[in-house]
Each structure stands twice: as structure tokens, then as C-alpha cells.
Amino acid sequence: MNSGINKAASSAPAKIILFGEHFVVYNNPAIVAAINRRIHVVAQLNDKSRVNIKSGQNSLSIPINSNDNDMMSHDNSSVSLFPIFKCVKHVLDEKNLVNAGVNLEIESQIPHGEGLGSSAASCVSTVAALYSLFSDFDKNQIYETARIMEQNIHTNSSGVDCYVSTFGGIVNFEPEKGFSKISPRKKFTLLIGASGIKHSTGEVVSQVRQFREKNSSLFNDLSSRAHHICRRAISSMNEGNESELGSLLTENHKLLSILGVSHPEIEKLIKICLNNGALGAKLTGAGKGGAVIALIPTDSSDEVIAKIGSGPGKWIQVEFDYDGVILG
Ligand code: PMV
Fold first, then answer.
1. Are 93 and 177 members of one domain?
2. Do 48 and 90 belong to one domain?
3. 28 close to 227: Cβ distance less than 8 angstroms
4. Local confidence band at 2 (pLDDT 50, 70, 90 cut-offs)
5. Quick check: 297 pLDDT over 90?
6. What tens digit of pLDDT does each residue of 112-147 get?
7. Is 161 a catalytic residue?
8. What does pTM read for this prediction?
9. Range(s) of the domain holding residue 310
10. How far, in Å, CA of 72 to CA of 98, rounded?
11. Which CATH number covers residue 173?
């Protein structure tokens, strides 16, 4: 086996969409940030020509030459790991290792199906651990491969989740211009509240497509408002203006509610945030469930977090992650 090392570990961060989800699908900007919750992957080569994956309660063990049809015989929990299997197959094929196999152990701090980028982070950390087996750790290469592999999970994905998970930081994404980094003047305090309601991004995106077809002038108006919010949000971050940033989050949420992608549980969580001192709050990601993000005033963060946390909902305080994917 012409590998560099036998075992490698890597981790990649989750993400939140601060502004612009859904509207980004129709050529508007979105602002996306990596956060300090990670997926860790340990990859080890084996000489059994099998891929053995363990991830929490789920596991999959199949020959490396398996194809999509072979997956039909597996149960749902194993099928959920098939995109990870495809990452392994892709990298081993690229390295011309036809008879090799890999054992993968995955540990996640990111709830799945809540719009926090667990699919992207799992592809990025898996691809990074695999490349590291061959002493390659090039973030551009990791991003390109993970972006293609993530499309096995989210067809037509913009690649923005994989981008922030690979490179970290806060990014303004404009479909026609690409990615540009935002460097805020101050550290913001954010809280994430998980509704526990799983969503399917694909389904919510199609509902929005139907909304747009039926309400084209309203949709255009909402899009230009969302676009303007992104522009103002970049200035607020650059200036460190947290109260304006908070108001923009809430404004963006109102647009998403009009689009019909909120959910009663999400509205409940947002009310809790706004009634207890958050500067602003919105759903993050596709919606119809998933998570909310709230901006907490820095000068009274402990007090506000305690108040929000004492009510219903599952809350975690997060920070932006500036490392992206790392080894170890
Ligand atoms: O829930 P998520 O993180 O999969 O968010 C999807 C973001 C959308 O704008 C709704 C879709 C997209 O591809 O950008």
C-alpha cells in the first residue's frame, strides 16, 4: 500500500447562516459563519478491502467495491452513512488504491437535520482525514472534493457550507461573485436554540420555489430587502455595531416568516429570545423546524443567557470558529 501513514484524525466545524438563506438560491447574497461545534473523524487504512464506519449509534460495513444498488439491502441508519462511504471510495480511487479499505470513527457535536451544516462538516472532516493518510492536507483540495461529495446528500447545494467548514470564519457569499471574508471589529455572543424538529432542506427549498411562482412580485420585494439586509449586516459587523446587527437578524426573520418557512416552535423560541433581552433573533438554515440564532448583548450576556436558558428549548452558546478544518 503506497500510503504515507496508517491512521489520521481531523475535525471540521458546524455552520450557521446569519443572513440570506433561501434568497441566496435566487442570486442574492448570504452570510454564513463557522461555529465552535465540530465533527471529529479518525480514519485508518485496512487491508480487507472493506469500509467500516461507526458514527454514534449508526454503523456501516461494506466492501469498497459496493455500488448504489448494494445499499438497498441495508437499513436506514446504515444508508445514512452511504455518502460518507462515497467520500472514502472517491479518495481511494483518486489515490489508485483499488484493494484498500478504511475504518472510520465519527464523533459529532452537531445535531443532525437542524440546519447547522452537519452533512458538510462530516464530508469535510472525512475527506480531510483521508487525504491526511497520504500526507496531503491542502484546504483547497479538501473543499473541492467535499463540495462534490456533499452533493450526494444535498443535490444542487451551493457549496457554502463546505466552504465555511473548510476555511472557517464568516463569509459573504454572492452566487455570481463567490466568497469574501468578513472580519468583525468585535467578538459577538450568540446563542443557538434547537427546536428538535428535523427538516428536509430539499423539501423546504421546493416549497419556496412554489411560493415564488405564485407570488413573484412579493418574492422580488422580499429578495431585495434581504439583499439590503446583507449589505447593512456587513457594515454592522465591520463597525462592531451589535444592536444594529441584532435588529437586522430579526428583520431577516420576518422576511423568512412571510416566505412561510418558519414554524410555531421556531416562533416560540424567537419570542423567548426577544422577551428576555436578546438584541435580535432569527431561524437559521432552511427552516420549518431546525434552529434559531440569537445575538446576546455583550455587556449583559450572562444575565440574558441565564434568562433565555431557564425557559423551554435546548440552548447552546457558541462562538465563531476561525480555524475551519484541522488535523487531530
Ligand atoms: O438548512 P440548511 O443549512 O441546509 O440551509 C439551506 C440554505 C438554503 O438557502 C435554504 C438552501 C441553499 O442551498 O442555499
1. yes
2. yes
3. yes
4. very low
5. yes
6. 888 899 999 999 999 999 999 998 899 999 999 999
7. yes
8. 0.92
9. 189-318
10. 23
11. 3.30.230.10
